[in-house]
Predict the structure.
Amino acid sequence: MTNTPEWRISDTPVLYPDAVSTMEERVAQIREGIANELIWLLEHPSLYTAGTSAQEADLLEPERFPVFRAGRGGQYTYHGPGQRIAYTMLDLRQRGPDVRCFVHNLEEWVIRALATFNVKGERREGRVGIWVDRGGGREDKIAAVGVRIRRWVTFHGISINVEPDLEHFSGIVPCGIDAQKFGVTSLVDLGLPVTMMDLDIALRESFGTVFDH
């Protein structure tokens, strides 16, 4: 197999269990050397996922949407229409078996894609994901990162808020963050009329600048 990832875009929302099943199968195939790496861009119907560090107290409205236990790292996250999910199935045996470097590269990928729209996404010590400074001491999260690695093949990945219903984040404490200081935003919430296709192009163009160097 070549080390050139396949890119796949799903035009209709993908059920979470179906996505996990597809990722599991592809990871096994990559591990066996019978399939290329895969970058899968999709949306989910509205749901909450609980990462391996999730605290039950952070699930404020357990009846609002289906809740799925995710094998990825992190805490509670909302996924739904208007949010671009990018599941990354990459072979770190070929790219370098360094988990910290991989996560840093995922963050850098998001930062560079957002920069396409003149959005300054930033990392924050002690807070996972990518943040936007809103001024006055307020910072809002625009992208989440949650990964799993099995025998040096990655899956799960990133999510970027394009135009989701931000009120749905109120059913959880997103990634354990303090709602008094930190909120959630999206590209459209920032006043940018960005479409999902616009973001997909930016992700495709910025991927190589991070991962292929």
Summary: The chain has four helices and eleven strands. The longest strand covers residues 138-150.
